[in-house]
Amino acid sequence: xxxxxxxxxxxxxxxxxxxxxxxxxxxxxxxxxxxxxxxxxxxxxxxxxxxxxxxxxxxxxxxxxxxxxxxxxxxxxxxxxxxxxxxxxxxxxxxxxxxxxxxxxxxxxxxxxxxxxxxxxxxxxxxxxxxxxxxxxxxxxxxxxxxxxxxxxxxxxxxxxxxxxxxxxxxxxxxxxxxxxxxxxxxxxxxxxxxxxxxxxxxxxxxxxxxxxxxxxxxxxxxxxxxxxxxxxxxxxxxxxxxxxxxxxxxxxxxxxxxxxxxxxxxxxxxxxxxxxxxxxxxxxxxxxxxxxxxxxxxxxxxxxxxxxxxxxxxxxxxxxxxxxxxxxx
Amino acid sequence: xxxxxxxxxxxxxxxxxxxxxxxxxxxxxxxxxxxxxxxxxxxxxxxxxxxxxxxxxxxxxxxxxxxxxxxxxxxxxxxxxxxxxxxxxxxxxxxxxxxxxxxxxxxxxxxxxxxxxxxxxxxxxxxxxxxxxxxxxxxxxxxxxxxxxxxxxxxxxxxxxxxxxxxxxxxxxxxxxxxxxxxxxxxxxxxxxxxxxxxxxxxxxxxxxxxxxxxxxxxxxxxxxxxxxxxxxxxxxxxxxxxxxxxxxxxxxxxxxxxxxxxxxxxxxxxxxxxxxxxxxxxxxxxxxxxxxxxxxxxxxxxxxxxxxxxxxxxxxxxxxxxxxxxxxxxxxxxxxxxxxxxxxxxxxxxxxxxxxxxxxxxxxxxxxxxxxxxxxxxxxxxxxxxxxxxxxxxxxxxxxxxxxxxxxxxxxxxxxxxxxxxxxxxxxxxxxxxxxxxxxxxxxxxxxxxxxxxxxxxxxxxxxxxxxxxxxxxxxxxxxxxxxxxxxxxxxxxxxxxxxxxxxxxxxxxxxxxxxxxxxxxxxxxx
Lengths: 330, 528
Known about the structure:
Oligomer: heterodimer
Shape of chain A: globular
Low-confidence stretches of chain A: none
Number of strands of chain A: 0
Number of helices of chain A: 16
Helix content of chain A: over 70%
Structural class of chain A: mainly alpha
Order of helices and strands of chain A: HHHHHHHHHHHHHHHH
Largest sheet of chain A: none
Structural class of chain B: alpha+beta
Number of helices of chain B: 16
């Protein structure tokens, strides 16, 4: 219920802000030589000459029929645009989250386990770099070293120039190519996604390493861990079986938030790698005052936050049963 | 054990990725662009990417050459009635659309009617001009004009002919009676094919990433370079210049469009596999002075600004390769008047003009607005600020988003004293500048923030537009240019250079003085 209220509030807020941005979108869409009549014609067609509350009502009721209104930029329904761009960003962010999980969590665990050792110091420096260096810089360096220098990875795009797209089941090329059994396409898509997804993941890796470390240190000092160690249970069991699960709640929350925020924050990496994603589309929409597109992107990102928060809550209960018990007790 | 197997699998997958892709057998040209293709519909497109698509997928009746003269394309010949109200075109026979059907006069009529009905794209060129289009026979079509329009032929490259049958086969319900929506939703939005006869066909369009054009083997002008011609053009949306440079060095990119900065092209030129071509464009940067608000309503203040400006720094340091601007018309437009007065920096003369001003010595602060993201223009504005500071005149610089600038330009009261913008030609004729910048009917756009509203200039422009005799018309335009320069509604800063970077093996690039007509891929071939 609260989530719906949040989304409605968000839509009203963005609707008003988008229309307060300077510049007449019809004039911008029609180009520099459009006559006043042309501008008027398009403004009328887009309903921009109606009162703001009526415009909002038309927009919001349209959404329930799958009509996100026309984008000034692409001249298509924003629904079509989002359906086109969202899978690319989604795929990028999902792979980035995998990087975060595969690299960030183990680094945090090791860092905590060997607290204040040289290994911990190295991990902390890596985590700090991850947080401090902007992802697009990581992307540019990656391009220069691995693409231009070593020639291992392609520079841009989701697929090579001559690679045919896999049949579209989900829009995620990695998944679609596997479903279709097109392994050469899968390989190509994988080659293309490694650098950009790693660039997107860098900040998350840094954050998760730091948070996992802090959380782990806290749990590792608990009595039951010390008791387990006193009983001679090997370190890897105490760490991964008894300590990791309860200390995973804060990283899990951050992971969820990172996932949702990257849907809109990945635009610089998408720009560097010419990745046809929704984040780039959203930023361009803001710059061109394409307010229907801005609304569409914000609503999707808002929805992603709501859904991801819900999933994180569910997972938190699964990971730490005490949370479920507390709720049950309450 | 399980963990080790998994690790091995991951390593094997990684090694597999290092195996290079298979070689490429076609001549594939990869071309960067800095903005998305909004549409490939020739009745709707306006900007340089959309125009690039139009120029390559469709044909017009005429086509500009590198000198800006209009040459026959689909038209074999044409005649003009003495009163300038009737233009009859004879079409070439046997021109094929991409679906194999023949292009006829009916398609020409349909294309003009569609353009005017949709009121989009370049329709403004002929909206008040065309009375009707009549098909005389299969290969003859006549345009009847409401009033003479001397640059009519020069404007016609923008009329691209669409395949009537293909468009109507995809029409949807709409406001145009039997024509439905004139196939706009299909050709502008959902299409996966084009409806043209141009040298290239639309192969695929991955919006936000790339658009691919494929060579049309049956193109009516043939392929003089045979196998050396470009088979496919992949236009990639690449905003980040660092990425563009990396790709260019690796030969992943064949050609870089003109929209990068001078230092970027300088660097690209230093790559051993790349060369940069520089042309003088038809775009002129002006400091447009609002002639209706204080203090730029005073001609002496305007002249003071023109004398105070440091043009040499622009030519030598900020934009090497640029041309001096003499009046509002760039020198490569046929009809440019080389005899109009040209300002240079002279601080003594600037001071003299200042003293003649009615505002002297308490000149109000002058406001300058320029668009965001253009560093060189900011430097040019700062240079003016520094020059004016010597006279104690304050210049207030505001940097605004483009959308805000177009809004400011809509009324005389909101237009600042100075707007820094550049105007390019729509067709290779001085009229494109004179009308759009100085005619009273064209005020309220970012191109006309001078608010000149001079009845004599209006009269001269109106007259040149209806004068069919070339010499007489040229004389009228010369006078108009002279009066405008004397009135000093602009500081004409420089004619912008157009730079394109390309691989050394790419040959045949031909500059034409109309936007995007130089990205005509039929010109190009590979010499590897």
